[in-house]
Specification:
heterodimer; A: five-stranded mixed β-sheet; 32% helix; globular; B: 798 residues; alpha+beta; six-stranded mixed β-sheet; 18 helices; 29 strands; 24% strand
Chain lengths: 158, 798
């Protein structure tokens, strides 16, 4: 049995018939073909698959694709605009917030929501809010610095 | 050679690999899509130890979408996964007491499964879901056997036998040092201290699970394997020459972007062998990506030592002798480099940074019904450092001395060239007191002790712990490791190709899975050739492009891989001088290369730029006699010795006496990794290493249920990886003692933090608990429960 799903990802609309058991992350990676969203675990701990769905940071392994029907999604591929890195992406680059880069897309999408909640976050707030995202390379030190850099360089909100 | 004076060397330039990784355009193995791909799902043993009476795959084969089901019996002619390190007397390998039992490790177990997760069959289907569904239908007739997982029980009388070829489950027995001299030292000692130290088993947990994609091309007979590897040539050699017996030149192994390794992606694993073999059978691409649960069950794990250690001190606190008895758990099979880790990477580091009168260490390797154990970040060296640094602090307490004073009294004095230890290796250069002094300065040690006194009066449990460390990296001089049992040389390759337009591509046998080679190596090239870094491209991870290389582990990339590149750059410049001499009508010996220009010495203005020489090399219309066209050089660098980075770390903790919870208040590190090419990158590696070392001390641990043999920490829910809010910011600094071993003076930086952090944290917790009468905790991690129990036990004995 297959069910229809229609989603808008990074401004583009996609419609497919999928198995109801297909996870949203596998839909994004395998069906739509956007492989920047990663899978690092099978228990929703690592956060490598974090995306923005209807403005909320969501682990895309915690949803079936069909549950996202009608949703508006942003993945890591949709963050840079007109060839310009988003300040969070730039912050990770400036502050060496990544090494192997596998957790990075999820970290950046999680950071996006942190900065919406806390435009000027303290170090403690950043560390607490990142508890759903695991990194094995950086020891988090420079990820915190990257998000602080981004906070300082985000355009003022209208 | 230009070194520290170069323009890029020593600068924290931003990483060139980051733009693709921060925009989601990295290319990891699971991102690569090929038409006609099939999906492999492995049927694994749910039992720790069980005989396979039979496998019925009839229903699975009939399942829609299934292409094939293979069992071990179907893989006739396929050999065991090889173990690349020998420990046998007949090979004259030093220290062998009992020969290594070379037990077989078949890609799909056919006779018996020996750990939970051992693969016994593979289902290959058109879709991942079809393969998952069909794997459920494979019926294995198991005869469950008794199992043993605990390190100290593996070789006990009556323990279940795991391999016919390893009686009593003993894999090997080995020793290093001087037994008689150590015994004498203990007889002369004023103070002796003895502790049991359990270095628990860890799981590497690279964020990217292992994956492979094998494509056999029927028309050309070529097999391409994309695999999460730290050393693609090692994978290719082991798979072709030892397991599958297929021609090496028809196999291309590609390790693209790899999401962390920490050792776990060095080794040849069952799944990549099975997928490669199956692709040749099916003539279709075969893909496998581990689930995280599979990663926990099958990625080679780390550590797992049980050690009884004794330290002898004289009246003044000088270290007279160290005696170490270790049982090392190797798991169910011999992983690729498993025998080297608890022997030559462990015993040789027990001298630390101290002048010790005598050392003797004996190691028994044992098999258990657990996932195989091999190198995990630090690999043997963290275990050695843990033993020594715990014993130093225990010794100081027993002698009634300050832990700082005792260390200072015993440091090897500053030297350069060679310091011969009692455990085979000779250090390259060191100034151990300098790093320690810098640490104490950052810490303000006296002030801390005063604060601690005040806190204790208020009933607060504040503690400080130190560790000094040394590691052998820049792995490794081939002659030395060959004599110690290595099945391979450990040189590195570096090829430099100058294109006609003056652009440069460098092919390195090192592999980056987070280390930033595309940046660091480009800095070296830009300096040496005096060209903009934008003209330099670094290629790694593809046996179809790079010369035979040994890959990345053992903190070897900059020192061994970088030096190989440097050697090729020298050859490029030498040939360039001959071309330039011709163009300038001068003698090659009068040509110098400065700032991207070949110049006639002493004749200002008489020069040709690098680009002109490059073009001339490829368009040799006007070319000297006897010189080959082209500008491309390859070098293989084999180091003359290991390099020995060192440093001193300190951790300040507060323990909650009611709950046992440990909070890290400060973490300080002073590392000496020799000269530093890119400080930002080195700092990042130190940070990550510290996090892993702290993780071992406080939270991490692979736990097997000894009755069922199940790994009960087989998910990220159960295995406590450090999170951002569990760790402090790190206060780091460096001293710089260049190594004389290589021309750049770089030592290696990938493992320092992991080695130093674990004992520093444990020492800090023990120090915090000292007023309660706790002087030792045998087991890590120091979870709240374990610390609370130690507090209760101390109270009840008072």
């Amino acid at each position: 049995m297959k069910l229809p799903v229609t989603v808008t990802i990074n401004g583009q609309q996609y419609s497919h018939e999928v198995e109801p058991r297909l996870l949203l992350v596998h839909y994004i990676r395998e069906v739509v073909g956007l492989t920047g969203t990663h899978v690092g675990c099978d228990t929703s701990q690592c956060g490598a698959c974090t995306i923005l769905m209807n403005g909320q940071a969501v682990k895309s392994c915690t949803l079936f694709a069909v549950q996202a029907d009608g949703a508006t999604i942003t993945t890591i591929e949709g963050l840079a605009k007109d060839g310009e890195l988003h300040p969070i992406q730039q912050g990770f680059w400036e502050k060496h917030g990544l090494q192997c880069g596998f957790c990075t897309p999820g970290m950046i999408m999680a950071a996006y929501q942190i900065l919406e909640r806390y435009p000027r976050p303290t170090e403690e707030q950043i560390r607490h809010q990142l508890e759903g995202n695991l990194c094995r390379c950086t020891g988090y030190h420079n990820i915190v610095k990257a998000i602080q850099w981004a906070a300082e360089h985000m355009p003022a909100r209208k | 050679m230009t070194t520290a004076t170069g323009r890029m060397f020593g600068r924290s330039i931003k990483r060139r690999e980051d733009p693709r990784l921060v925009t989601g355009r990295g290319s990891f193995v699971d991102d690569i899509k090929l038409p006609g791909t099939t999906y492999a799902v492995f049927v694994r043993s749910p039992h720790a130890h069980a005989r396979i009476r039979g496998i019925d795959a009839t229903a699975a084969r009939r399942h829609p979408g299934v292409v094939a089901v293979f069992t071990g019996k179907d893989m006739a002619g396929v050999n065991s996964l090889p173990c690349g390190w020998d420990l046998r007397k007949e090979k004259n390998i030093p220290g062998v007491i009992q020969d290594l039992a070379m037990v077989p490790h078949m890609p799909l177990a056919a006779d018996a499964a020996r750990h939970v997760g051992d693969p016994v069959a593979v289902v290959i289907a058109d879709s991942r879901t079809a393969a998952v569904d069909a794997a459920e239908l494979v019926k294995v007739d198991w005869e469950v056997l008794p199992a043993v997982t605990a390190t100290e029980r593996a070789a006990a009388p009556g323990a279940p036998q795991i391999h016919a070829g390893a009686p009593g489950n003993v894999a090997f027995r080995w020793e290093i040092g001087d037994r008689a001299a150590t015994d004498q030292a203990f007889q002369r000692a004023a103070v002796t201290v003895r502790k049991r130290l359990v270095n628990q088993r860890l799981v590497a947990n690279a964020m990217e699970p292992r994956a492979c994609l094998a494509r056999y091309d029927d028309a050309t007979g070529e097999l391409t394997l994309w695999v999460t590897s730290q050393n693609p040539h090692v994978h290719r050699l082991l798979m072709c020459a030892f397991v599958l017996g297929i021609p090496e030149h028809k196999v291309r192994v590609i390790a693209p972007d790899v999401g962390g390794g920490f050792g776990s992606k060095i080794f040849l694993y069952n799944e990549e062998v099975v997928c490669s073999w199956a692709s040749r059978q099916l003539r279709r691409p075969v893909r496998w990506t581990a689930t995280r649960r599979e990663a926990y069950l099958t990625d080679a794990q780390g550590r797992d030592h049980v050690t009884d250690a004794e330290l002898a001190l004289d009246r003044e606190g000088r270290m007279l002798g160290l005696r170490v008895r270790t049982t090392a758990n190797l798991g169910a099979y011999l992983s690729t480099f498993a025998p080297a880790v608890p022997t030559f990477l462990y015993g040789t580091l027990l001298n630390g940074v101290y002048t010790i009168g005598a050392i003797h260490c004996e190691v028994t390797g044992v098999f258990t019904n657990t996932t195989p154990v091999d190198a995990y970040r630090g690999a043997g060296r963290p275990e050695a450092c843990y033993v020594l640094e715990r014993m130093v602090e225990a010794g100081a307490r027993a002698a009634g001395m300050d832990v700082v004073e005792l260390r200072r009294k015993n440091f090897i004095p500053r030297f350069s060239g060679a310091y011969q230890t009692h455990v085979a290796v000779a250090y390259d250069s060191g100034d151990y007191a300098a790093a320690f002094d810098r640490l104490l300065q950052m810490l303000d040690y006296r002030k801390f002790r005063a604060e601690q006194e005040a806190a204790r009066r208020q009933g607060r449990l504040l503690g400080i712990g130190f560790s000094t460390y040394i590691e052998a990296c820049s792995i490794a001089p081939s002659k030395v490791v060959g004599a110690l049992g290595a099945g391979a040389g450990l040189y590195e390759s570096g090829k430099v190709r100058v294109h006609p337009t003056g652009m440069v591509t460098v092919y390195t046998g090192s592999h980056s899975h987070g280390q930033g080679h595309e940046t660091t190596f480009a800095q070296l090239v830009a300096d040496e050739l005096g060209i903009p870094i934008e003209q330099v491209e670094i290629v790694h991870g593809d046996t179809g492009a790079i010369p035979f290389g040994m890959g990345t582990y053992g903190s070897r990339s900059a020192s061994v891989g970088g030096t190989a590149i440097l050697m090729s750059l020298q050859k490029i410049k030498e040939k360039g001088k001959r071309i330039a001499a011709h163009l300038l009508e001068a003698s090659p010996k009068d040509i110098e290369y400065v700032d991207g220009q070949f110049r006639v010495m002493g004749v200002p203005g008489k020069a040709v730029p690098f680009g002109t020489v490059a073009l001339t090399a490829y368009v040799p219309h006007n070319y000297p006699e006897g010189l080959e066209p082209g500008l491309e050089e390859t070098s293989f660098y084999d180091p003359s010795n290991f390099c020995f980075p060192f440093g001193a770390h300190a951790c300040v903790v507060e323990v909650d006496r009611e709950t046992g919870r440990v909070e890290i208040l400060r973490y300080l590190a002073v590392d000496d990794v020799g000269n530093v090419i890119n400080p930002m990158i080195v700092d990042g590696m130190v940070h990550g290493g510290i996090a892993q070392g702290v993780g071992q001390a406080l939270w991490e641990g692979a736990v097997y249920d000894d009755r069922s043999g199940q790994l009960v920490t087989a998910s990220m829910m159960d295995y406590a990886l450090p999170k951002a809010d569990m760790l402090p910011p790190y206060e780091t600094d460096r001293t710089v003692t260049p190594t004389p071993v290589n021309p750049m003076g770089v030592k290696g930086a990938g493992e320092t933090g992991t080695i130093a952090a674990t004992p520093a944290v444990v020492n800090a917790v023990v120090d915090a608990l000292a007023p309660l009468g706790v002087d030792h905790i045998e087991q890590m991690p120091l979870s709240a429960e374990r610390v609370w129990s130690a507090i209760q036990a101390a109270r009840s004995t008072r």
